[in-house]
DNA sequence: CTTCTAACA
DNA sequence: TGTTAGAA
């Protein structure tokens, strides 16, 4: 059984025109052709498309999905959990250098968005108990996250890209700014971090830059109004809800 | 209905 | 990056 591009597009919920663009630009999905040159998509192609969609949902740019599909990376369900446990153990034992090394290595091995959502955020959750000892461990972990993120951001600046600023807006946990920055590394953005939690923001002083606002809590009417106001001033502004 | 390329937002 | 226009 095979499908024309139109049928296939409806089946997997991707525009036919987008499918062609993916094939042309990124070599994703190369269906057989009929004698007339029309694409014939197979059942396997459907599985491929689902995998691609998975990665895109996880925040990986379509342009970077290709190598991820080839990888036999059949990750066990508890793969992330064991990585978390290993990191946690090194943290508790005070093996800071070894912890730092493992985080850097993981960053090379996995897509950054996955590292953030599957490993670093859950790990921070595990050391969040309101106990002095735990608080100290979390400070150590946050320090490593911040320096690793800085390292990745520096790397991005060697390549061309749009300049962006990321900061918190109605946010209580400053480390989230760094995690969201880390998640966006390697995607052709040159990001600078405003690490504080300013009570008021004035993005209009750098209207040429793309602003990324990490926000927790509800997007109240007042906040939406503020966002509209900024955008009406021509400021490119993304709100990142947690 | 499909193909492609070029250009736009 | 996804979408559109236009020609075949």
Automatic annotation (TrEMBL):
SUPFAM superfamilies: Putative DNA-binding domain (SSF46955). The keyword Cell division does not apply. One of its GO terms (molecular function) is DNA-binding transcription factor activity. Keywords: DNA-binding, Transcription, Transcription regulation. InterPro entries: DNA-bd_dom_put_sf, MerR-type_HTH_dom, MerR_fam, MlrA-like_C, MlrA-like_helical. Pfam families: MerR_1 (PF13411), MlrA_C (PF22267), MlrA_helical (PF22270). This is MerR family transcriptional regulator. It comes from the Bacteria. SMART domains: HTH_MERR. Gene3D superfamilies: 1.10.1660.10. Residues 1-71 form the HTH merR-type domain.
């Amino acid at each position: 059984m095979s499908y024309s591009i139109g049928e296939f597009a409806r089946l997997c919920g991707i525009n036919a025109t987008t499918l062609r663009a993916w094939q042309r630009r990124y070599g994703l999905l190369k269906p057989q052709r009929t004698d007339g040159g029309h694409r014939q998509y197979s059942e396997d192609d459907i599985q491929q498309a689902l995998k691609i969609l998975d990665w895109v949902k996880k925040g990986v740019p379509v342009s970077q999905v290709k190598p991820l599909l080839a990888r036999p990376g059949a990750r066990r369900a508890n793969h992330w959990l064991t990585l978390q446990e290993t990191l946690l153990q090194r943290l508790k034992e005070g093996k800071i250098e070894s912890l730092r090394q493992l985080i850097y290595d993981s960053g090379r091995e996995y897509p950054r968005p996955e590292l953030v959502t599957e490993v670093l955020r859950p790990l921070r959750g595990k050391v969040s108990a309101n106990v002095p000892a735990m608080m100290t461990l979390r400070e150590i972990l946050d320090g490593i996250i911040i320096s690793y993120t800085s390292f990745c951001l520096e790397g991005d600046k060697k390549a061309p890209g749009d300049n962006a600023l990321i900061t918190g807006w109605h946010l209580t946990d400053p480390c989230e700014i760094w995690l969201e920055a880390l998640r966006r590394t390697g995607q052709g953005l040159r990001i600078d971090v405003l690490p504080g939690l300013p009570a008021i923001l004035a993005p209009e002083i750098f209207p040429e830059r793309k602003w990324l606002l990490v926000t927790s809590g509800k997007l109240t009417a007042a906040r939406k109004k503020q966002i509209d106001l900024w955008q009406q001033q021509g400021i490119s502004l993304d709100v990142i809800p947690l």
